[in-house]
Amino acid sequence: MRVLVLGAGLQGTACAFDLLNDAKVEQVLLADIKTPALPRFLQEVAGARLIPFALDVRDEQAVREALARCDGVLSAIPYYFNGTLARLAVESGVHFADLGGNTAIVQQQKQLDAEAKAKGVSVIPDTGLAPGMVNVIAQHGIDQFDAVESVKLFVGGLPQVPEPPLGYQIAYSIEGMVDYYTTPSLVVRDGQPTSVDALSEPETVKFDGSVGALEAFHTAGGLSTMVYRYAGRIPVMEYKTLRYPGHVDIMRSIRDLGLLGTEPVDVKGQQVVPRDVFVRVAGAALRKGKPDLVALRVVVTGTVGGARQARAWEVVDRYDSEHGISAMMRTTGYTLAITGVLQCSGAIAAGVHTPDECIPAQRYFDMLAARGIQVREVPV
């Protein structure tokens, strides 16, 4: 199989690395706006099977020419390109998957379903960590019950050693973090989609070992389209972000003081957007690049054979010091690569599906385990 990876940032290079470690992958095309400079871990495995090149995804003809060279395309670039890219992939008869993160664009991609089926290709948006892996695990949990009362998802990317004041370092971008902390979160309450305030309803989630107790709070996007898929069928569904204790109180104070606001204010005769100042100053301070971990838990409550029970599944993954690949890159970039391999190998039916709708859970878990990422059932 020949796979095109769009984006040579953290997730795209991790995705390419994972693909190159799969003997079934004949060629990996790695594209970015400029010909990518390869990180050390990718240089070590590159060889002739990796072809880095420059591609502007806004140039539809250039994208079509690149698509003609591959069987599948994996997008690790900003979400707002993915609607057009999915359309071009379907028109070209090529499988497509992306890291997603924007439910409105996922719903736009869903409109390609009939054409994708006619072309015999699959489109899988929202296939990173959250949304992505956590949704596949949630669906696996739902499938273990006769009737489900609640589904709760918890995910966090954290430094292994927290440092004050926030106990956090940037895993993607500071802009993305601010979006999550200011955008209402869509959950299911009483069986209906409901908006709740970001950073609200904090609770403690305890992990074994060195991770310990974390705090969880609402942020947007993690449930993706599961909110609509299970509305009226499951009374409670929610997604919360995990951080070290104390983080949520500080961030709520920063937000409530207006420091994440988007309306310009006058500062000594200059119009200044508070959010822009926070992003610039805090972004630099939080870009630490130190060893990280990813903590994930899914808890499903319901009935089996008339008996009420709760079951939980967990992932804790850590920085790969041998290759210099972060836990966030492993759980996101590798997950994107796994999805592409499943698509190109014929394991996914044609059409447009979110990961929870189409990915075979046990095979997916086995592929993650082969990369040292363990999905474990744990006591509730």
Question: Can you walk me through this structure?
Answer:
- With 380 residues, this protein is an alpha/beta fold.
- It has 14 helices and 18 strands.
- The protein has helices at residues 10-20, 40-43, 60-67, 82-92, 103-110, 113-119, 133-142, 174-182, 226-229, 247-256, 274-286, 327-344, 355-358, 361-370; strands spanning 2-6, 27-32, 50-54, 72-75, 95-98, 122-124, 147-159, 185-189, 192-196, 203-206, 213-218, 236-243, 265-267, 270-272, 292-304, 307-318, 351-352, 376-378.
- A 7-stranded parallel sheet has the order 3-2-1-4-5-6-17, sandwiched between helices. A 7-stranded mixed sheet has the order 10-11-12-7-15-16-18, covered by helices on one side. The chain has a two-stranded antiparallel sheet with strand order 8-9.
- Strand 1, helix 1 (10-20) and strand 2 (27-32) form a beta-alpha-beta unit.
- Helix 3 (60-67) crosses helix 4 (82-92) and helix 4 (82-92) packs parallel to helix 5 (103-110).
- The relative contact order is 0.17.
Low-pLDDT stretches: none
Strand order of the largest sheet: 3-2-1-4-5-6-17
Overall residue-averaged pLDDT value = 96
Using DSSP, what is the number of strands?
A: 18
Helix content: 25-40%
Classify the secondary structure makeup into a structural class: alpha/beta
* Number of helices in the DSSP assignment: 14
Could you give a short account of the major beta sheet? 7 strands, parallel
Question: What's the shape?
Answer: globular
Q: What is the C-alpha radius of gyration, as a whole number of Å? A: 21 Å
Distance between the termini: 41 Å
Estimate what percentage of residues fall within beta strands. Answer: 25-35%
